[in-house]
UniProtKB/TrEMBL annotation:
One GO term describing the cellular component: ribosome
Key words, A-Z: Repressor, Ribonucleoprotein, Ribosomal protein, RNA-binding, rRNA-binding, Translation regulation, tRNA-binding
Protein known as: Large ribosomal subunit protein uL1
Gene: rplA
Keyword Cytoplasm carried by entry: no
Source organism of this protein record: Aureimonas altamirensis DSM 21988
InterPro entries the UniProt entry points to: Ribosom_uL1_bac-type, Ribosomal_uL1, Ribosomal_uL1-like, Ribosomal_uL1/biogenesis, Ribosomal_uL1_3-a/b-sand, Ribosomal_uL1_CS
Length: 233
């Protein structure tokens, strides 16, 4: 445990926990301190001025990160016939219809994202209790219920990130790896923040983006000046 404590205290060295950092400076500092034996994920968390218990204050959406996420995403597609073949050709990891529904009902969930053609939703709807809590339920609002399964598979594999505000009004996501270039990470973070901004619900009152923080998997968290996260004109 002493070794871990030493590494963390070294990572925190020279950081001001109360300062609001410029996004570019924060990314540079986190990259320098990401010294774990694996490629750490860089994560952004945004505190929003919403109460998601109210339907008109729910924030959710999807964003295609310009530089990808750096992680391998396993994609399952619920489809039949030609659409199933299209999904396989586009690189889907698992494709099926009733057989796949049965596997998922049995607890076999070996994927990170689920896509379905509209005609399959009668079947897939039965999986709400299994997939819903895991954030895996296909939804037309984020492009995972679609007749164009090939495009949806490619987007999922290429850096599409879904986001959904939690009860406490926080939305967060992994926006790349510590091995990414600093500019690529800043670009991804700004794309994510822009998508969250565009998803601002009609019921949001007062300041929408209240706080922004950035961290790496094993590193410290830094408070970010929200104005520096906005896309630069």
């Amino acid at each position: 445990m002493a070794k871990i404590g030493k590494r963390i205290s070294k990572a925190r060295d020279g950081l001001d926990r109360d300062k609001l950092y410029d996004i570019a400076d924060a990314v540079k500092m986190l990259k320098e301190r990401a010294t774990a034996k694996f490629d750490e994920t860089i994560e952004v968390a945004m505190n929003l001025g919403v109460d998601p218990r109210h339907a008109d204050q729910m924030v959710r959406g999807v964003v295609n990160l310009p530089n990808g996420t750096g992680r391998t995403v396993r994609v399952a597609v619920f489809a039949r016939g030609d659409k199933a073949e299209e999904a396989k050709a586009a690189g889907a990891d698992i494709v099926g219809a009733e057989d796949l529904v049965e596997k998922v009902q049995g607890g076999e969930i070996d994927f990170d994202r689920a896509i379905a053609t509209p005609d399959m939703m009668g079947l897939v709807g039965r999986l709400g209790k299994v997939l819903g809590p895991r954030g895996l339920m296909p939804n037309p609002r984020v492009g995972t219920v679609t007749p164009d399964v090939a495009a949806a598979v490619k987007a999922s594999k290429g850096g599409a990130v879904e986001f959904r505000v939690e009860k406490a009004g926080i939305v967060h996501a992994g926006v790349g790896k510590a091995s990414f270039g600093a500019d690529a990470l800043v670009e991804n973070i700004r794309a994510f923040a822009d998508a969250v901004q565009k998803a601002k619900p009609s019921g949001a009152k007062g300041t929408y983006v209240q706080r922004v923080a950035l961290s790496s998997t094993m590193g410290p968290g830094l408070k970010i000046d929200p104005s520096t996260v906005q896309a630069q004109a």
